[in-house]
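= Tokenised fold =
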Amino acid sequence: MKTLQEYLSASHAPEDLGKIIMLIADQAGPIRSAFISNQNYAGSTNSSGEDQAEMDTWADARITSVLQKSGLVRAVASEEQEDIVQMSSSAKYSIVMDPLDGSSLIKVNLSVGTIVGIYEGDVLQAGNQLRAAFYMLYGPMTTLTISLGNGVSIFALNAEGTYILLKENVKIPEGTLCGSGGLRPEWTEKHIRYMNEIECEGGKNRYSGSFVADFHQILEYGGVYAYPATKKSASGKLRLVFEINPIGFLADQAGGAVSNGECSTLDIVPTKVHQRTPVYVGSKGMIAKIEAIR
């Protein structure tokens, strides 16, 4: 079966880009092994004011360290770091990442993941400029879902520590799964109308609190994941740079779409590293539906 390394070669990925992808992919084993001894909160907060789990800081330090030592990376923007971390000025590629999405679920043994985007040049670029995006999902299997801008493929980590191809040319179907963050009393009228319409059409609610895990269900079965604008936060909760752009890029490459409810988030050039935006991501028809509501 085709391996991740063979996929990168067949896709003609530039040498340094391929090395960076493999370097981060190889951290899945150590990250997964660290779950048992890092179950609690770290007693610190990230730049967004959220409590950091021990695994948030552990995964962030681990990935940042290996990238720093590689000499292959220009800069790293991490959800767990207040500022962009500058590395090798002569390097071509910069990384955006959520080192451990859904970390509060580790204690109850639900799926979590690592989200990564790779740009040529600086990190504050529109998502449509990504050279690669992928996420590692730590569930019953450890999987890696990736796009280099030529479709989406899914790999699984086998017992020998090699990523082998599970699926290629993955496409998001027009499904009925739906999951929405935010407290219902704080939803806007537009979002209430949207969710009611989906539920009346037979939508099935799926929401775990792990963006990457919930999106993976949407990728497989179709539907929509949403974290909308609310009455208390017009910008929603999720970060454009670390979370929405890589996941949105993958959705687009799988024939789906991503939106803030008005337009594609992939066209937004971020002005700050921790910028937030509402998000709807999934089947193309589901995204067209929210954009049509005025």
About this structure: The chain has a mean pLDDT of 94. The longest strand covers residues 93-101. The longest helix spans residues 54-70.
